[in-house]
Structure formats: structure tokens, C-alpha cells
Amino acid sequence: MNELALKYGCNPNQKPARVYMESGELPFKVLNGKPGYINLLDALNSWQLVTELKEATGLPAAASFKHVSPAGAAVAVPLSSILEKVYFVEGIELSPIATAYIRARGADRMSSYGDFVALSDECDEQTASFLKREVSDGIIAPSYTDEALAILKEKRKGTYLVLQMDTNYQPAPIEKKQVFGVWFEQQRNDVKITADCLTDIPTKAKEIPEDARRDLLLALITLKYTQSNSVCYAKDGQAIGIGAGQQSRVHCTRLAGNKADNWFLRQCPAVLNLPFREDVKRPDRDNAIDVYVTGEGIDELTKEWPRLFTALPPFLSSEQKSTWLKKMKGVALASDAFFPFGDNIERAAMSGVSYIAQSGGSIRDDNVIETCDKYGITMAMTHIRLFHH
Fold first, then answer.
1. Is residue 388 part of a domain?
2. Which of 16, 41, 322, 361 is 20 to 30 Å from 308 at the Cα level?
């Protein structure tokens, strides 16, 4: 099949809509459901991300995509007992691909609500079972076990979108798109993100441990498929904060840093021990936890507590949050282009960043390096820009 009709384009008024190949067959099969325009944009971008993550790290990889940017991305690094509780998988022995998916989905669960999932490896029964209970629009993977496919076909009353990617597919080196009747053409961004990108280290601190190297590569590859400007914080084999599509880089750094802070705050004892009622569903728990850690909408949460909690929990003070966040260390940060000012580093340091990868090339590189030295941060200049639009 070299053409597939779609219900509509980005919006219901944009008809007709289709995807097609100028030559050859479409590189994916629809095993269940009916794909939409945005579904396929998410699927094809996220597939590239997880494929490159697997190639760079040797580990199974997963991504959670929303509106053509990742809400989360991860590789199969085993979960700590605390993260098992945070991600609602306590006491469960996870397969490697399920581990990657749980991490990708758990990074920013509110942003992942209604996501598109990508897996680098075969979707097994366990991963499908976890996915079945989440609000999600679809999945792309190289293959599915019979049990996994049967589970996914039951999701969303049988309409859940399941795509199987042809792993042998190689796109043409030149890509094209049309905007307002004008054709654009460019070489595909096929640059390889490897450890060789992290060898130019102009800061006083020079050491990048193996786990931090993995996290920097993960962050860089994630940014390669994130709408620019973009910044990504990563730790323990997963993105923990992604700032996408901002016009100012420091706003990316702040947005992603706030998400990283929230990820870490979810691990503090006060949050882990919130007295939820047993009948409270996962999305409601996610929303309540987000309000609890950010403080935004706390008055409404106070009114709603009998529906959510067995008792009204004490709320976190700014001092309590600050004290807990000071424990966050060893975070990796990557940027899709250079940092123009040291203010980005100042904000990154507030979220426990110890390692940075960025392209370099700003006229203020000296100021950025000096600010890294101020906090003992190791920074690598990759000399690779990763804009994505």
C-alpha cells in the first residue's frame, strides 16, 4: 500500500487529507484503528527517536509523544523502589521494554495524557497491559506478541491505533515539505549522536561518568525530535523535563527545569504518603499530585479533598520544597543550540545539573563556561545544532 486516506488533517476543517509514498510502499502497517494526521507525525518522529536511542545506548527505548514533541523518553534502566511507587508499579518485575515505557510515561504524566507511544523493541504482553490502563491514542513498534496485540485491540472499544514499523525502511536522503504553496527541500538530519560529541570539554570540571554520558546522549537525541527551541533534563536513563517550542532559550531552561523539579518532588515522602482513597483513578491522582507539588490550584484541591483523600494532607511549604530539591544532584542537561547567556546555567544549577551538552558557538561562550565553573559543572561543546521544525 502506498497511500492511506485520513479522516482529516491537523484540524477537522482540513479535508481532504492523506499520507502517501511517491514511490514504494508505506513503511508501516495499520494493525488496528484508523490513523490521523497528527498520529502519524507523532509516530514517525517518535520511531526515529527510539531507534536512535537504542543504537546509541544498546538499551531498549520508549517515547511518549504529544503534538510532535516528546513528553518523555527513556531507556531500560531498572527502577528504584521509590520510582516504582511514583510510577504505580510497586513490586512488579518488569521486562526491559516495559521498564523503558514506564519511565517514558512517568516523566511528565500530565503531558503524556493522550499520548502516542513508540517502542524500539517488540511490544510484549506486560507492556501492553500497562498501556491498556493509560489514556493514549496509539502505539508504533517493530512487532507485537500475539498476547500484546490482543490486549491492545481491546483498548478504546477496539479503536486503539496500533502501527507496525518496517525496520528495514530507509528514507531518501533529501526530504521535502510544502508551506503555503511553497516547497522546501533539505538534507535529512541524519547526524549521529555518539559519545564522540562529548569530548570537547572547556570547563574546569572534566569528568563525565558513564551514566551521565548515557543521560547526555539520551537528552541530545530527545532534542533532535523536539520542536525548537528546546532543552532537556535527564537522569537515570530518562528525560525528566523537556522544554519545547519556546522563543527564548532561558524560557526553555526554566520550563524544563520546573518539570524536572516536579519529577523530583514527586519522590519526597510527603507526596509518596499522600492518603489517596482507593477508588481514586490514576489521572485524578496525577492531577492532584501536580497541584500538591506546584501549589497551583491548591484552594480547589482543599475543597475537593473528601473525594480524593481519606484525610486532608498537610501542604508543602516553599521551605520544605527548597530543602528537598537541594538533594537533587547529578542531573544531565542538553540544549538543541548554544546557550547565549550564563542565566541558563544559573537556572540549571537550581535543578541539580552537574553535566551539560550544548553546541557552543555563542559570542558569550566565555560567560557560559565561567558560570559552569562557578557551580562545578562539566560542560561539553558538541558543535552540533539540533533544531527541529
1. no
2. 322
**Cα separation, 222 vs 50, whole angstroms:** 9
Task: Report how far residue 364's alpha carbon sits from residue 356's, in angstroms, rounded to the nearest whole number.
Answer: 16
Q: Total domain count for the chain?
A: 3
Classify residue 89: in a domain, yes or no: yes
CATH number at residue 310: 1.10.287
Cell of 199: 569530548
Q: Are 324 and 265 in contact (CB under 8 A)?
A: yes
CA 337, 341, 344, 350 dihedral sign is: positive
| Cell numbers representing residue 41 in the block | 507525525
Facing residues of 71 across strands?
none
CA atoms of 339 and 358, how far apart (whole Å):
7
Q: pLDDT band at 283, cuts 50/70/90? A: confident
C-beta of residue 160 within 8 angstroms of C-beta of residue 140: no
Q: How far apart are the first and last CA of the chain?
A: 28
CA distances for 63 relative to 48, 54, 69, 337, angstroms:
10, 11, 10, 22
Taking only the tens place, the pLDDT of each residue in 37-78 is 999 999 999 999 999 999 999 999 999 999 999 999 999 999
CB 344 within 8 Å of CB 323: no
Three-state DSSP class for 113?
coil
Distance, in Å, from the CA atom of 123 to the CA atom of 146, rounded to the nearest integer, reads 10
Structural domain of residue 309, as residue ranges? Answer: 273-315
List the one residue out of 295, 363, 377, 285 whose CA is nearest residue 330: 377
Contact 31, 149 (CB under 8 A): yes
- 342-377 per-residue burial string, b: 16 or more CB within 10 A, e: under 16: bbbbebbbbbbbbbbbbbbebeebebbbebbbeeeb
* pLDDT tens readout for residues 98-123: 999 999 999 998 899 999 999 999 99
Task: Just list the catalytic residues.
Answer: 66-67, 229, 389
CATH of the domain at 63: 3.40.140.20
Q: How far apart are CA 345 and CA 373, in angstroms?
A: 10
Dig out the grid coordinates for 113 from the structure.
495524557
